[in-house]
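Practice problem: predict the structure.
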Amino acid sequence: MNHLLMIEEEIILFKKSIEAFAKKEIEDNYMQWEEEGTLPRILWNKLGETGFLCVDIPEQYGGLGAPFHFASSIVEEFSRLGYSSIAINLSVHSNIVAHYILNAGSEEQKSYYLPRMATGELVGAIAMTEPGAGSDLQGIKTTAVKDDLTDDYILSGSKTFITNGQSFDFVIVAAKTNQTVPVSKGISLFIVDDFYEGVIKGKKLKKIGLHSADTSEIYFEDVTVPTVKLLGEADHGFITLMKELPQERTILAVAAIGAMEGALQWTVQYIKEREAFGQPLGKLQVIRHKIAEMMTELRVNRAFVNECLTLLGQKQLTASEASMAKLSSTEAQGRIVDGCLQLFGGYGYMEEYPISRAYTDARVQRIYGGTSEIMKEIISKDILGK
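Answer:
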């Protein structure tokens, strides 16, 4: 018990350092970054210098060797502060891409990429989604064909909705390497550096939210990828993807918790100060009860997400449980942020108020990382069978 209390105290202190960093490095610049649609490269360097990147990666590879629960607090805190674009870019880099390399990479790959990711020298991305293949990975069309003469792979295809799509220095790409078997048995993963000839960063996609989380299309035009860039075993990429998805979905749930907490904090403060009918809004029963409902929903979801973080740390979290956390928390985020905006009235619809940004940022949470409908299918299969 004392050990758990120590971890919680450390997380509280860590969150305070994140808040101080955000006030110094982000607060005055964030709206400009949102308008520009990207985060400056120097921010990645500062995040690395301050120790906010890849903190749960082992020390031998440049991380701090912290528990994942500790690492997830970075995403939660940036989300709570209203910087969801930073939270999602950072989570893809640190909590997803870095762990693919740590868990499936060769010693050479881990020794090269992970320390540079921890400092912010290299920014990572992952490319699974294609124009015709979203949550269903069975529809992947991108191919990597082995050249028998050189032993290299020739990568061809396109990917879309790629986070860090403009700023990445390398991207993990899922491609079909065996055309004669089902996709689940013929996908491989590759680490593709952005300077390879034929790697084309497409247009920056315009979104309704998460504006500075640069999202792009990527094209691979007969890209030569050396065999040493194969991540894990050939044709076993689907298994690796399935192993890593629970962590990805859990970190999205963590982001939802942070965003809900931030939205409620702004709203509680607002209704204490804003007056209507001669008294603060917070004195009106209908509003007090709405706040009570939303705060309760937040606490219930936080408890389950914390349970999932514990299970993840023990390597016992199932795909179904991660899907439950992602489904419940992101659906709750949509309801709560909408409810909070409603309590702001007309001001909630104005871009100068962070609740308006939280509202548009929240919508994609129920889509990426597997839609709510896909989450329900995974959960129901676990309960009822296929």
